[in-house]
Amino acid sequence: MIAAKVRMLRAIEALRAGVPSRDVVSFFPPVQADIETRWEKSLVASSSGANGQGLLLEGDFGTGKTHWLEYMEHLALEANFICSTVVVNKETPLHDARKILAAAVDSARFRGGSGPALGEISHTYRAESAPGYTKLFEWVHGPDRDPRLALTLLLFERTRDEETRERVLLEWAGTPMTAAEIKAGLRDAGVTPPTVPKPRKDNALEKLEFVARLVQSAGYAGWALLLDETEMVSKYSLLQRGRSYANLALLLGATKQGPAGLSCAATITKDYAGQVLYGRKNDMANLVAKMETSREAGLAATALVGMRFIERSGVDLRPPGKELVDGLFDQCRKLYSEAYDWPAGPLPDRREYSTSTSMRQHMRWWINAWDLLRLYGRHGETIVDNLVISYDEDADIQLESHTEAARDEPRIVL
To answer: Cα 278 to chain center, whole Å?
Structure first.
């Protein structure tokens, strides 16, 4: 009873702040059947060893993009996937595959677990009992694979030292081990160490697919990657945007080179194509020609695929109808009443239904109104300011990225 009450209060607090959470999703799952169906198909495809074509959710601020990602995570966890959520921002720019990979590994979670999923695999993985180890072994020994993957998998398989296994996980997440570390670990595990090749600087995609195959070999269905706030790409320089579009195309399975075993969903603002791909920046007209005359020439075609995916394949989040809004009001009123043991009643001055009012605005207004009645016994007025999204480039983000790239060439891309 106490646990149920806590979940209710957590959900109310998240709704009051306008921040989606797992508790909110459990009480108010989003409703748009085509999105749920497409996501389930993507999960089925990646669980069979393919790259499930992902979804790009388009909507304005407050229309439920992040709410949908929370729900998609719930569906993936229930389908026995490992799930990672990465917010595209200054620390995790989409054009830098190393940071996306590291953040995805760090945030990976599994059903029923409270800690990082790969940490759990590190403690429990045994090659002799792992259901998919043979497939993983064959894949890492395939042609053109990074030989360090096979070597570190051997170390991971043979060692029983937890610190060594955790160090191998860091290698797979993008922080290379030294040759001395690998050799020492193999010797301690009773293996005569071979020559250890240097780390490749262009295999973030390969490592991403390796991790997806690793979790499948451990008995999970696959890896689900959720990218939030992809519109941050607009703040990068032109070539950084090009690498981001290429990475997005690969992660969303818009090309055959996308990582197997991975399902990806991303969010983006509804007017991104009009404002950035066309409009003032006009990336559709300017980007490919610029990339073809730069060191990013090899990514130009994939970047174009990514831009076309944004332009043509985004899934529009439809505004809720009046009947749905009324139904959610009744659900929210019941939840509030049970959470506070206080009879939240109808709100006579409830604002009239409008397709331009986001669900987030509705929810916050209802809860604020009940808060004022419960705590002070009076009605109040909620003032709504519309958020204006800027697509201007951000010199600070670009400067940091250029500095890092200058320290470590060539740049890793997906």
So the answer is: 26
Strands (E), 294-372: 315-316
Long-range contacts made by residues 339-342, C-beta under 8 angstroms, separation at least 24?
Answer: 339/5, 339/8, 339/9, 339/11, 339/12, 340/12, 340/374, 342/374
Global pTM reads 0.89
Residues 6+ away with beta carbon under 8 Å from 310: 56, 245, 248, 268, 272, 273, 277
Q: Which of 262, 267, 253 is nearest to 305 (CA)?
A: 253
d(CA 36, CA 268): 17
Q: Which two tokens stand for residue 172?
A: 């797979």
Q: Which two tokens stand for residue 290?
A: 């610029």
* Residue whose token pair is 């981001």: 244
Q: To the nearest 5 percent, what fractions of the chain are helix, strand and coil?
A: 55, 5, 40
Q: Residue 351 carries which side chain, given as an amino acid letter?
A: R
Q: Is the peptide bond before 410 cis (omega within 30 degrees of 0)?
A: yes
Q: How many Å apart are CA 386 and CA 232, to the nearest integer?
A: 19
Q: Which long-range contacts (CB under 8 A, 24 or more apart) does 148-154 make?
A: 148/176, 148/196, 148/197, 148/199, 148/200, 149/206, 149/207, 149/210, 151/182, 151/194, 151/196, 151/197, 152/177, 152/182, 154/186, 154/191
Segment 321-376, tens digit of pLDDT: 889 899 999 999 999 999 999 999 998 766 667 767 788 888 888 999 999 999 99
H or E segment to which residue 263 belongs = strand 262-268
DSSP string, 386-408: PPPPP----HHHHHHHHHHHHHS
The three-class DSSP label of residue 282 is coil
Least confident span in 166-180, 185-199, 265-279, 350-364: 350-364
Q: Residue-wise over 176-194: b if at least 16 C-beta within 10 A, else e?
A: bbeeebbbebbeebebebe
Indicate the DSSP class of residue 175: -
| CA dist., res. 338 & res. 333, Å (int) | 9
